[in-house]
Specification:
Order of helices and strands: HHHHHH
CATH topology: Alpha-lytic protease prodomain-like
Mean pLDDT: 78
Number of helices: 6
Low-confidence stretches: 1-17
CATH architecture: Up-down Bundle
Radius of gyration: 19 Å
Distance between the termini: 45 Å
Shape: elongated
Helix content: over 70%
Amino acid sequence: MAGCCHDTDCGSENGERPAAGWRRVLWIALAINGAMFLAEIIAGVAAGSASLQADAIDFLGDTANYAISLGVAGLALQWRARAALVKGGSLAGLGLLVLATTAWHAVAGTLPQAETMGIVGVLALLANAGVALLLFRFRTGDANMRSVWICSRNDVIGNLAVLAAAAGVFGTGTAWPDLIVAAIMATLGVTGGWHIIRHARRELQTTDAAETLAQPTHAL
């Protein structure tokens, strides 16, 4: 059927375990996101940009998520669904942290450096677009795989928004475009985390029901 996996590297809702191809992609994604977190958090603090700092926190969250995914890639569907619950909660939590950071910048009246935002935003977009292309074929797998794809997709959208914020800051001479984009990115994180949690809970309910049915019944 359309949208189903047809090779051994792609996991499925029925508990099929991913093979080495999934692990290789995750290692590459982990390395890219870890390096971009370090680069972007330094640039975000130096430029006084809430959206760059928000994107850096997102890179950190993705690095941790990829590490968790690698840890459970060879385990049963139930354990991968539990890992997805953790990742969904962390993604939503990071979104709330970004909202708090954005509010602080709004109160402090920080004016970010648009040029730095633009340069770093382009580098982050290239990095995330490459990761998204690598992960694209795994987007219809189990909750664990889907959570990784959602994070990657949201990253690309966030990078485009950072570039728009840089243009807005440059054109208006105010911090509001940066703050608005940071708030949007935080909302994406919260909603993305909620979607991951819902998907993982459905998988856990399915596996629990299957285990209950598989248990032998004893006559009284």
